[in-house]
Design goal:
about 325 residues; mainly alpha; Rhopdopsin 7-helix transmembrane proteins; 13 helices; 2 strands
C-alpha cells in the first residue's frame, strides 16, 4: 500500500514539475515573441496586408493565453491555487474565456489560410475578396460566433466535490452532467483542433495547387510580390505548429470521452492527470511560438525584426552618449 502511495506521490510531483517547466518556458518565449509580433506586423510594409492583419489579430488573442491563461494554470496545476472554486461565477467565466480565446486564435489562422487561397486565384473577382476590409469583417464574425458557440458552458460548468490527484475531496470547477461532459469533449476537440486543422490543410493544399497551376501567370502578376510568398511560408509554419501541438491533446480527449464512468483509483487518476496536464500544457506552444516560426521562414519578417533591433540599439547608444557628454563638458 505504501509503495502504491509512493508511486502516486511521484507521479503527482512529476506532473507539477512538468507543468511548471513547460508552462514557464511557453510564458517566457511567448511573452517575448508575441510582443515582437505586434511591433513587426504594425510596420508599414506589413500592416496593410490582410494575411498580416490576421497574424496580428491572432497575436492579440495569444497574448491573453500567455499572460492570463498560463499563469492561472501554473498556479492551479503546480501550486493548487485557484479562484474558479470560490463560486460558480468564477468557475463559469474562467472556463468560457479560456476555451473560447484559444479557439478564436486558431480560427483566425484558418481564415488567413483562406485569404491566401483567395489571393492566389487567377480569377480577379475571387482575388478581390482578399482585402483588409474583408479580413476585419470576417475576424469580427469569427469572434462573435466562437463566443456564442461556447456560451453553453455557462449552464453546465459548476462547482462540485471530487477527489484530486492526491485522493483528497476538494471543491472543483467541472461538468456535472455526464452526457454534456461527453458532448463538450467532442465539441472542444472539434472546435479547437480537428476542424481548424482540417480547414488549414484544405486551404493550404488549394493555395499550393493555385500556385503550381498558374506559376507562369504568377510571375507576371504584380500582386504576387515577394512579401506574399513570405507570408505564405510563415502561414505554413504556424499551421504546422498548431496541428502538431493540438493533435495529441485531441487524441487524449477522445480517449477520456470513452471512459467517463469507469471507476478509477488514485494511481489511475494520477496517471491520467500526468498525461492530461502534459498534453494540455503542450498546446500552449501553438500560442507562444509563432514569432520564432515567422522569423525562421519569413525573410521579410526577419528584415523588419532586424530593423527594430538596429533602431533600439541606435537609440540606446544615443541615450548613453547624451548622458556622457554633459559629464565630459
Amino acid at each position: 500500500m505504501s509503495t502504491n502511495n509512493d508511486i502516486v506521490n511521484q507521479l503527482n510531483t512529476a506532473t507539477s514539475t512538468i507543468v511548471l517547466v513547460l508552462s514557464s518556458f511557453n510564458f517566457i518565449v511567448g511573452a517575448i515573441g508575441l510582443i515582437f509580433n505586434i511591433l513587426i506586423f504594425t510596420r508599414p510594409s506589413l500592416r496593410n496586408e490582410p494575411c498580416s492583419f490576421c497574424f496580428r489579430c491572432s497575436t492579440y488573442f495569444n497574448l491573453f493565453v500567455i499572460f492570463i491563461v498560463i499563469p492561472v494554470r501554473i498556479l492551479s496545476n503546480s501550486f493548487d491555487l485557484t479562484l474558479n472554486n470560490l463560486n460558480n461565477g468564477f468557475c463559469k467565466l474562467e472556463y468560457f474565456t479560456f476555451h473560447a480565446m484559444r479557439s478564436i486564435s486558431c480560427w483566425i489562422i484558418v481564415f488567413a489560410c483562406l485569404d491566401r487561397y483567395l489571393h492566389s486565384s487567377t480569377n480577379i473577382r475571387i482575388r478581390q475578396m482578399s482585402s483588409l476590409k474583408t479580413a476585419k469583417i470576417v475576424i469580427t464574425l469569427i469572434t462573435i460566433v466562437i463566443l456564442l458557440s461556447y456560451s453553453h458552458q455557462f449552464v453546465y460548468f459548476e462547482i462540485t466535490y471530487k477527489p484530486n490527484r492526491f485522493g483528497t475531496i476538494i471543491a472543483t470547477c467541472t461538468i456535472v452532467n455526464v452526457i454534456y461532459s461527453v458532448f463538450f469533449t467532442f465539441w472542444h476537440m472539434t472546435m479547437y483542433s480537428i476542424c481548424p486543422s482540417l480547414f488549414m490543410f484544405l486551404f493550404g493544399c488549394l493555395t499550393l495547387k493555385n500556385l503550381q497551376k498558374y506559376r507562369h501567370l504568377i510571375q507576371r502578376n504584380p500582386r504576387f510580390r515577394r512579401t506574399d510568398v513570405q507570408l505564405l511560408r510563415m502561414l505554413i509554419g504556424q499551421v504546422l505548429i498548431i496541428v502538431l501541438s493540438t493533435l495529441p491533446y485531441t487524441i487524449y480527449l477522445f480517449y477520456t470521452s470513452l471512459t467517463p464512468r469507469s471507476t478509477k483509483d488514485t494511481y489511475r487518476i494520477a496517471q491520467e492527470n500526468l498525461i492530461l496536464r502534459t498534453l494540455t500544457t503542450t498546446t500552449f506552444s501553438a500560442h507562444s511560438s509563432s514569432f520564432y516560426f515567422h522569423t525562421l521562414m519569413g525573410t521579410s519578417f526577419r528584415k523588419e525584426f532586424f530593423k527594430i533591433i538596429r533602431y533600439c540599439s541606435s537609440q540606446t547608444r544615443i541615450h548613453v552618449i547624451q548622458r556622457i557628454l554633459p559629464r565630459s563638458s
